[in-house]
Structure formats: structure tokens, C-alpha cells
Amino acid sequence: MTTRTPVLLTFDMDAETLWTARDPDGANKPVWVSQGHYGPKVGLPRILRLLEKYGVTATFFVPGQVIERYPAEIESILSAGIDIEHHSYSHTWSDGLSRDAEAEEFQKGFDAIVSATGRKPLGWRSPAGELTPHSVGLMEQYEFSFSSNLFDSDTAHLLSDAGRVTDIVELPFAWALDDAPFFLYSNRLQGRVMSAPSAVAETWIREYDGISTEPGAHFMLGMHPQVIGRHSRLWALEETIRHIVDAGDGEFVSCADYAARVRPGLVEANTP
Ligand SMILES: [Zn+2]
To answer: Where would I find the NodB homology domain in this sequence (predicted)?
Structure first.
């Protein structure tokens, strides 16, 4: 039996919190914040239609504030049978937070997911692209089975915390496999140039072709509905999905299911 390459499509549906977290005065900048509204209202339905077209699953990471603000959109994700995982409450960049403030973000985000979905989240992705000294302990406190934060590997491994190996499965990804470095743009973000969708599709397809030759490696894309949800960018995602489907050697799977499957074979962490 050949093992198929796990394909993990992940969407961080940050909506307005992506912008309010970057600028404390963001709430007073309607154009700035309106970029976030596009994600759940316009990008999300297109993404769900694309996933349905190919019969593939995904994982959504959603801040609690977004869950509370967009109940109908959250329901559309759940109706598609897609898991919603933890991505903080307010998307406040946690690398500047005290332990108490980060703990409150965990609790409120957790409560919002349980209240809206009836299911406890099993995984956490940091809103800051960084872990604090308290993040791993908080993940353990909430009995998360997986983390998707590090960039250290293309292979699942156990997460460590100050040299101690935990029971949490880390599912690493990479900026090269994220839509934001290619496409995120605002007239207030200096130095950003939008990439051609064809260049992004080529990057992702070539990454898949390499990863799919390596036993144990997984292919994870990190995306944002407000970024990937435009037609030109969805084309890049569809090209990638179609390539994987045509190759016939990939398996689209949720992060939680993949973490549960791979956990028994993991004994050590990649990084100290
Ligand atoms: Zn985010």
C-alpha cells in the first residue's frame, strides 16, 4: 500500500481583526478595516464552492470575535463539514501580552467556538506568527492535540516547551505556502508588492511535487479568505488543487484528523 501525501488546506478567517490588531486606531479607519469584511462576506462563499467542486476538506482557524460577528458565515463552514479551530479571541498580537492577557484570549476564543459549534477546538494557531513563553502551556491546559505554528519542518513532530517534549503534535507550515506574503497589500503597508497568481501557483505546485516524494512529509497551505478569496488568487489555489487531484497521490485531510492519525508514531520533537 502506498501512503498518500497529506494535504492540509488551512484558512485563517481573521476578518476585521487582522487590521484592528495591526493598528490600535484601526476601528477609526473604515477603508483599512473594510478589507477584513471581504473575507467572510465575499471570499468565504467562493472558497466553500471551490472545496465542494473538488470534494476536498479543509480546516478553518477563526478568532472568537469573528465567530461572534459572523454567525451565518460560521454556520456555512460547519454545514460543509469543516472543523473550526482556535485562533485567539481578538487576534491581538500575543507576543506582547502578559500571561493573564494571553490566558483570557485562550478562554474567550475557546468559549466562542464551543458556543457556536458545540465542539471543543483541538488545535491552535497563534495570531502573531509567534509563541510566547506561555503559549504551549496554555495549549496543554486546553488539551489541544495539535499546534500549527512552527516553520521548522515539512513533517509533523511533537512540540517541545523549554526542552520538555509535550504530547501536542506540531503541524508546521511555511511562508512560501501562505497567501499573505504574496498577496497581502494595503496602501499603509509599506514595501508590499502583489505577486502574479501564476507565480504563486507555480511555487505551490513545485512545493507539492517535492514534498510528495518524501515519506512522512505533509503539504500545508495557510490562507486567508480576505486574501485568497479574490478570483485571480482563487485561480492559483484551484490550479494547485487540480494538480494534486490529477496527480492522484494526495489525500485532503483536516488538521485534527491528521494529527490524531500521526500521533502514535511520534516520539520526539524536532526542535529543542
Ligand atoms: Zn490570523
So the answer is: 30-253
